[in-house]
Amino acid sequence: MSDNPLYKRTIHKHDIPSTILPEGQRTIRVYLPPGFQAWISYPVVYCQDGEDFFNFGRIATHAQRLILEEDWDPFIIVGVEVDKSQRTSEYAPDGERYPLYTRFFAEEMVPWVESHYPVRDTPEMRLLAGDSLGGAVSLSLALAYPSLFNRILSLSGAFYEAYFEQLRQAGSLDRLKLWMVVGLQETAYPTDRGTFDFVKLNRDAVRLLEEKGAKLHYAEKEGEHKWGFWQQQLPEALAAFLGPAPRLFE
Q1: Using one digit for the tens of pLDDT, what is the confidence trace for 215-234?
Q2: Which Gene3D superfamilies does the UniProt record give (predicted)?
Q3: Domains in the chain, ordered, with CATH?
């Protein structure tokens, strides 16, 4: 079976040119599903912390199994890599590099992917995925670019005050669909901005999102703020948007 090209798993790496980022480029990884055909268009998952999603989240391995063994329709995954030393600066709304990163993501990276791969170009077929600050910046991107994004997968989102300010300033969010999870052991997690109760942050974010009309699935489960927990959640999370019908948000 592994020699059959229909079952092949392909991952490409690209350096995306950028006139927005000071370094002039950003690396992405692109997973192509088994049986990939260039003339077919596919839903796409855009992952913050792309290297971690592939290496620790094993998202390509999950996707391969779900497509081959559980008869899911195929989809493409794009992982956007990040320099960990600049991660907070890029992902937090009050970070110095946040305007550069979010503009690059929406205005350069997504158009590049759509011009080089047969991904579908509607908000309903683009899923933003992230862990911790990556989950929060995914929501932030959906707020800033409503014509591009309306579906978010958040694993233990690090919803700092700057994100709440964005939410409070937003109008109706009834277009948004979110799948959110947090671990019950995440009540005192140390970060570069202090120690946070991620359970409370997520509960507060859910409350505000619901007040604004967003449609969401939220769960609190036994788990810590680490990939060992998040990796286990990915099949269920992806199923909400990409699994066989009936999907959670259809």
Answers
A1: 999 999 999 999 999 999 99
A2: alpha/beta hydrolase
A3: 5-242 (3.40.50.1820)
